[in-house]
Amino acid sequence: MDSDYISVAKILNFHGIKGEAKVGFSKGREKQIADLKKVFVKKNNVFSELNVTSVRFHKQFAIIKFKELSTVNDVEEIKGFDVYLTKKEVEDNLDRDEYLISDLIDMDVYDEDGCCIGTVFQVGENAANNLLSVKDNNGKEHLVPFVKEIVPVVDLEKKRIVINNIEGLIS
Predict the structure, then answer these.
(1) What are 25's strand-pairing partners?
(2) Of the chain's two ends, which shows fewer C-beta atoms within 10 Å, N or C?
(3) Cα Rg for the chain, rounded, in angstroms?
(4) CATH 2.30.30.240 spans which residues of the chain?
(5) Which CATH number fits domain 2-92: 2.40.30.60, 3.20.20.210, 3.40.50.720, 3.30.70.2740?
(6) Does the global pTM surpass 0.90?
(7) What region does 39 belong to: left with phi over 0, alpha with psi -120 to 50, or beta?
(8) Within 13 Å, how many C-alpha atoms sit on residue 129's CB side?
(9) DSSP-assigned letter for residue 92
(10) Tell me: the pLDDT tens digits for 46-91?
């Protein structure tokens, strides 16, 4: 099932002639990429396992050698494919106060007085931080900076977020 997997990188191209792949990933995720042992790619709606034999970094990309790929042609077959980990593996490696975007979507948003003021429908980012897109009870959309000072509580079990609704944030 697709919801059991999370995309963490993308196969951009081959690198060299020995079946290495040039892989793009989000900035700040170097340790997660360096620690990869096995990943999955989705081809024809089927997830296939690839075993990582080496990872090195070149500029802002990872150069990854997979046990199953030994030629440029092998890598060409998966060029453009997302690289997935199991959702459980990703969750197990999240830092404190890190969340999967998929877990935040559809969470109810409450103010500090316990009043439900809307629901998260999207998570985006700007240069400074992530942004929660919240649709209020009247259908109006608001952007809420996803920082501890404004979003002190994220309760995954109760699917509930509490925000400090400072003046002008959500009116």
Answers:
(1) 9
(2) N
(3) 19
(4) 101-163
(5) 2.40.30.60
(6) no
(7) beta
(8) 13
(9) H
(10) 999 999 999 999 999 999 999 999 999 999 999 999 999 998 888 8
